[in-house]
Write a sequence for this structure.
């Protein structure tokens, strides 16, 4: 039985995999994306979170048994519309042993999905996706220098794991956050297209437009939000995927 740190469980989610789902948010992320929408998920440890002058602890330890039992209570609801559980964060692959142990306990009763940056040792990535039914794979930037500049890490592991995913028999979605002046270029979109084109189990591409509200949480954890791009500029949208017969959703 493994122990993990999570910071939120959200029921009745509809945008993070098929059907109605429960999203489990895990603490800890090795990336430092300058536009991060969930800064409270970056630290792997519980931390203070202040909202409307009320100070609480964000994050708590839970065993894989306790979390599995909690999730399994809704297994009949998930079956009703082919929903399930999605692990997100933070970065779920930051707590791989906990994630693998949890997935083994809830499958096959529950449809399982993960939202991941793909930044993990490839052996770990393969072990985790072998326990999944569905993957939401985030791609930010194909240029490794720019990727490191804006996320704090290179993208070599991410691109290697993307290749593994594209060769697998697991249904997956590509998610691209469109950040103005950072990755919203036609060149970047075409480079992503070249890496996913022809993948048999690719369901669609989701283009996620940047929203200024992304910075609202930073003050709640005692940090400032000063992204090195114009938050008032709308990101460019180059939908090279739809024209190449890949279903695309712009959110």
């Amino acid at each position: 039985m493994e122990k993990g740190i999570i910071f939120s469980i959200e029921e009745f989610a509809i945008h993070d995999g098929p059907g109605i789902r429960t999203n489990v948010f895990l603490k800890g992320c090795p990336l430092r994306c300058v536009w991060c929408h969930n800064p409270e998920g970056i630290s792997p440890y519980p931390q203070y979170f202040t909202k409307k002058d009320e100070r609480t602890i964000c994050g708590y330890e839970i065993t894989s048994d306790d979390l599995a039992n909690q999730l399994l209570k809704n297994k009949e609801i998930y079956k009703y519309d082919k929903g399930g559980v999605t692990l997100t964060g933070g970065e779920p692959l930051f707590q791989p042993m906990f994630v693998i142990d949890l997935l083994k306990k809830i499958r096959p009763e529950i449809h399982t999905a993960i939202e991941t940056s793909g930044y993990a040792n490839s052996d770990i990535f393969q072990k985790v996706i072998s326990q999944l039914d569905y993957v939401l794979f985030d791609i930010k930037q194909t240029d490794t220098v720019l990727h490191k500049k804006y996320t704090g890490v290179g993208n070599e592991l991410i691109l290697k794991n993307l290749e593994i995913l594209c060769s697998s028999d697991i249904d997956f979605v590509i998610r691209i956050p469109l950040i103005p002046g950072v990755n919203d270029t036609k060149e970047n979109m075409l480079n992503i297209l070249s890496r996913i084109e022809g993948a048999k189990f690719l369901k669609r591409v989701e283009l996620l437009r940047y929203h200024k509200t992304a910075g609202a949480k930073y003050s709640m954890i005692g940090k400032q939000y000063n992204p090195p791009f114009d938050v008032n500029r709308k990101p460019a949208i180059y939908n090279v995927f739809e024209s190449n017969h890949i279903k695309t959703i712009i959110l």
Notes: The first strand starts at residue 3 and ends at 13. Helices lie at 64-72, 75-80, 96-106, 122-129, 144-151, 156-166, 186-196. The CA atoms of residues 146 and 182 lie 8 Å apart.
